[in-house]
Amino acid sequence: MLFKEIHLKSIKSGEITLAFRKWHKASVKIGSLVHTSVGLIKISDIQVVNEIDITDQDAIMAGYHDTLQLLKSFGPNNRGNIYKITVSYHSADPRIKLREQTELSEDQFNELKNKVDKLDRFSKQGNWTNKILLAIKDNPNLHAIGIAKLTGFEKEWLKLNIRKLKNLGLTISQPVGYEISPLGNEYLNRLGL
Length: 193
Known about the structure:
By secondary structure, this protein is of the alpha+beta class.
């Protein structure tokens, strides 16, 4: 579930407590935590609602001026049910602390290596992790399409899998492109790459 940056800041401050989405089926579950640029956002409730049941107060609590502005945000061709989602700021993103590590014990390194090896082992692309990590290291802030051209992987597949590396603390998403985290550098150094 994606949020606009302007809304994320207001969710973190508590000004925004609702989100509305038009989906064929809900793409989040009650109790789930969504990783965002401001930290983890908690999904506390999800309800299917009708347009006529959305009040101006609901729209304001979702970061819009009124119901009409909220409904226009769905766009003209959006089909599906309208979901009213109760959201709140949960905590800082735990990946930030993880990615800032610059030292790994032997056990920590082996545990991380096993997780990375598992990504390779269960991928139809074969061993891709080191290739992607090195492409990011050698080309900081290069966008996904550029990394895709360098590595030969399809852009959407690449973006999804770079997110897996980010979840392990190895990469950092930038406004444009990616970079290797301090942990990612330490990991590659330990591999001798």
